[in-house]
Request: fold
Amino acid sequence: MSGQDETRRIPLSPLMKKFILHWGEMGTRWGVNRTVGQIHALLYLSPGPLSLEEIAGTLSIARSNASSGLRELESWHLIRPLSELGHRRRYYEPVTEVWEMFRLIADERKHREVDPTITFLRSCLEEVASAESADPYVKQRLEGALNFLEAMSSLWDELRRVPSGALRSVAALRNKLKGLISPGS
Reply:
């Protein structure tokens, strides 16, 4: 079976292929490469865990490329590796609850992008404070950016603690209120 598993391709419907291609394209816009997005889409649509070989075979990509993509998805906490008794291969399954997926992506983006920028802006403002001739306009702009990012960071920290079910209810309520406020839109 091991030789068979290496070339095993998961049958994909035309709609699944369309989704996988789109998710890969969107991945490039979200800052991950196309293959990472396609691997994530394949796992998301799969009814069960898939092995590296199944992923590579189905997407017609090199095993090394699939392996790199899986590592990237693991670093975002969007997939989990699984082991099965009697099998040496690892299998992978995605986080499938969309609200949780969003929270994980937002957490990781905050960690990778927002937190370092906050640290950088604070160091810039320390530099401005110790400078003999600091441009007040630059200081004002840096403070504005820092204040905004700190406020959004705090807001996210509070929002991420709200259970997914409660967020879904708030979203549904928002849609109902929107309909009451501006009917017909």
